[in-house]
Amino acid sequence: MMRVGCAISNMLNKPLREVPVPFLFGLAVLISLLGVLLPESARFGNDWRNVRLDLLAPPFAAGSLYPPHVVLFTPHIVLPEALSILVQSVLLIVTLIVLIRRFDGTLAALFLTLGNPATLWAIQIGQLDWIAALALLLPAPLAGLALTAKPQAMFGIALLWARRRSWANFAAAVGVLTLGVCVYGAWWQLNELPTEAWAWSVSIFPFGVPAALYLAWRAWHAQRAAVMWAVLIAPLASPYFALYSLAPVLAVVCSQNRRLGAWLVLAVWYLFFYTMLREVNSGRF
User: Fold this and answer.
1) How confident is the model over 66-96, as pLDDT tens digits?
2) Contact 148, 173 (CB under 8 A)
3) Are 210 and 196 in contact (CB under 8 A)?
4) Distance of alpha carbon 161 from alpha carbon 23, whole angstroms
5) What's the mean pLDDT in 188-216?
6) Alpha carbon distance, N-terminus to C-terminus of the chain
7) Which residues of 138-171 are buried (b: 16+ CB within 10 A; e: fewer)?
8) CA distance 52 to 84
C-alpha cells in the first residue's frame, strides 16, 4: 500500500513539461470529441453556437458580447458548426495545458485545473476565456489584443505590463478598441447580458476591492508569484465574473501554489453547488 501511495505521489508531482506533448494534445482532442458526441442536451458548445452566429452575422456586434477584434482569434467560426465546436473546445483545453507547462505545473495541477465545475463548464459551453489567457503566453503587442478580447477575465495582467513597461501592449489594447468604436460605434450598447447570467457571477465587487488592491501590491512587488497574484485580482474587482472564467485562473494558481489552488478548487465546488441549489429552489433552473 505504501508503494502504491508513493507511486501515485511521484506521478502527481511529475512536471507537466516532462509529459509528451502528443499525449497532452491527444487528451484535449479526446475530451473534445467526447463532448461533441454527447446527446444533444449535454453536447458541447451551447454558448459558442450563439457567439459564432453573432460573429458571422453582418453587421458585426448586432448582438455580440465581445469586442469586434475577437474575430482575429476565432477564424474557426467559418468552419461547419460541429467542427468549430470541436476546435473551440480543443483550443480552450490546450491553452490551459500550455499555461500549466509555462508556469512549471505538475500533473496534480492539471487534474486540479480540469477536475472542477468551472473548467468543465467552460469547456462544455465553449467559452472564450482562453483568448484572454493568451495574454500570459503571447509577446507584445499580441498580448494586448488577447486581453482586450475579454478584459474582465484577467485585467490584473495589465499591472504586470506597467511594471515591465510593456507599453506596446497598452498601445495595442487602446488602438484596437478605438478602431472598433470608429468602425462599429458604441457596439457594447447594442448588447445586454442575460439576467440569468448574473446568477452565476462569483464576483464580490465592490467588497472585494480592498483585497484586490492588496493583491495588486503583492503582484507589483513579487517575483516568481507575480502572475498568480495578478490573475486573482479580476474575480475580486470585476463587477461581473462568471464561475467558468476561473478556469485559466485556476491553471495559473494550481501551477504556482498547489495548496492555494486546492483550496480554490474546493471553493469552486462549493460555489457551484450553492448556486445550483439556489437556482433550483427559486425555480429558475
Assistant:
1) 888 888 899 999 999 989 999 999 999 999 9
2) yes
3) no
4) 33
5) 81
6) 44
7) eebbbbbbbbbbbbbbbbbbbbbbeeeebeebbe
8) 9
